[in-house]
Structure formats: structure tokens, C-alpha cells
Write a structure and sequence with these properties.
This protein is mainly α. The protein has one domain. The protein is about 75% helix and about 0% strand. The chain is built from three helices and no strands. Helix 1 packs across helix 3. The protein is elongated and about 35 Å long. The relative contact order is 0.16.
Amino acid sequence: MKKMGTVSWIAMILVLIGGLNWGLVGFFSWDLVAKIFGDMATVSRIVYALVGLSALYLVLSMFGSGGEKSE
């Protein structure tokens, strides 16, 4: 199993925050990111963009590591 680097950890944390936020939106119609940073404020949009980029990074890293040799 490959050890996760710093970027992977940050991506994982952001994806977890995004997933929890979407759960709150789905179950309670309550957007935590918007409550903290403001409804579609610049900071909120940056957080949403970083969550999306993090998810893309994790997906690409999952499929990109398939060709590694085991020791």
C-alpha cells in the first residue's frame, strides 16, 4: 500500500468536508460552507472549487497508480 503524501491528505480532507456539506444540504437544506463564508461569496466559491479539484485529483491518482510495480 502506498503512503499518502501531503497533497493527498489535503485533498482527502477537502473531499470529506465537501461530502459532509452535501449531506447537510441533502438532509437538512443547510449549507455549512455558505453559513461560514457567505452565500456564494468569493471564499465560498474558492472552497467549492478546491473540493472539486480535490475530488478530481483523488480520482486521477486512484486510476493513475494502477501501473506501479510491487516490491
